[in-house]
Fold:
Amino acid sequence: MVDFFINIIIFNIHFMIYLLWRMVVVMRRLEKISFEQFKKDIKDDIKLYEEYKVPSRKTKYSAGYDFFAIESFSIKPGEIKKVPTGIKAMYPKDETFMLFVRSSMGFKWNVRLCNQVGIIDSDFYNNVDNEGHMWFALQNEGDKEFKVKKGEAFGQGIFLKYYTVDDEDEVQEERNGWTGKPNSEK
Structure:
């Protein structure tokens, strides 16, 4: 009987270690890029860097993390604008982070992402080219100028688990930098 309780205690200790490991190793985080990367991609302005916000959820059950404009911008009808977020994302290897426009942007203004949905792979985080800095490429297909003020939400991101097929050959290739280019440009 004593052995039984000892085994239960050992099992509980192992389970607690596992849970702690999951909390430390497998976490999701949205964070600012470094100021050095910010200077390269956006501008050399420490005040602007310090005051922009990390994405957050608006309500308790929101799936999406709202991205806020670092600076005001506008997009004229027919125009495409690449909007920096100043944000990178870290999450488990079997998840992806997906970027979307806010529903009202498409519904009210006919503004969309150029690639419809941004798929950010987990190995994009801290890549050698840009630290994993995520951008939105927005296109205004409406008939009115679309304006976003500094600090307003303009996009959202959602963490999702993904699955692979069981009989897939093992993939060996690893990301060395930002590879978001068509195959013909690699």
The chain has a mean pLDDT of 89. The longest strand covers residues 153-161.
